[in-house]
Fold this protein.
Amino acid sequence: MNNQQKMNRRRFIKMAAAAGALAAGGAALWKLGAVRLFRDTALQQFPGVLYVDRLRQVVAADSGHARVLMWERPSPTEKQIVEVRLQGAGGLRRYAAADDSFTDDGTEVYQYTAELDQLTMGNAYQYRITAGEAATDWQTLYVPTANEPYKMLIFPDSQSSDYADWKQLAHLAWARNTDAQLFACMGDLVDNGEDRLQWTEFFGGVKEMQRAIPMAPVMGNHETYNRDWKVRLPEAYLHYFKTPRNGSREFERYYYSFDYGEVHYVVLCTQTKEIGNFKSGLLEEQLAWIRRDLKAHRKRWNVVLMHKDVLQYRINGRPERAEGIDEENGRVWMPVFDELAIDIVFTAHLHTYRNRGHIYGFEKTPDKKGPLYILTGVAGNVRYPNLWIDHSFDEVTLPQPETDNYLTMEVTRDSIEIACFLMDGTEMDRVRVTKK
């Protein structure tokens, strides 16, 4: 990156951080009961003000030239337009919003989507949503160059009974890392996939972050539960996240891939058992797709994000359960990752952080052959204290009983460095993968 690009990027980061701090203050005010009632009614009467909720960026297949925006309105709104301009410039590009409203959990969600294209690599943009004479504030949007270094935030399961801990963790992680360019949530975003209130609480944790940088969501098994705790199709998840298309007739957006800088990300769906109650073929389709996808989109770095883990752990008090490789995910996917030369695999689901180092052919590899496997931990308040007995593959674990954590991933051309932090910012692990 030349000096001018670096200066533009630093200026953009500072502006995004300032906007996030201002939004955080506003978010605290909106929590007041009287103001909350006022927000959905009187605010709409202010001339020129357009109120939107849960405004978010979602990754596009080619993040160097495209981005998806999604948001909600308190009532149906026609002819909404997204205006995009270069930061500090006057010219506008306009994108019509599509109505993606849906009903779930007895609630009509008035949701809208705009797919931004023809963006230029390395540019800092601003965007806002308009409806007639009303408009939102300008928000920031950055498009990476093909090979620039960047940071990514990674959040384990945010599933919670009370989302206060999740909100605090996410807000603090963003406050410490406003230079991050995107973030991933590793599945079990909510405890119950049909519960509308839980989704609004989940989005509350990333309210400032998701406006400024794109999110890469991963589907977890809890996204497939209804209010009676029976399995259903992940209706809410599929509506809330318009992720890149995968070309599937039966499983569109259950799994996907995208490029960001020099990394190709493959996001798998591990809910084959849950989805299999309704339709078959998810696993077989993904196995064929991932080979086509990596052949067409391989980058210098190739990273997998998947919810369920690849190893099987012994459990305290259950001597009959042996340590080994998970039959449904590890035995299936690990040989494929070896075959396709995947660099890093991130998993979740077990609510514990484990750095396993590199594994190839179901064996540990001191020469760092095979993917680095990271089990990402827990970001909500559903914890399993002292449940798992350490696996022989584990190289780093966190002290028990575990508390919330998040990860950062810093990407350069020659290395990827991953760090694990507790909510208070204490660094618990750091590992580096290099490539010549």
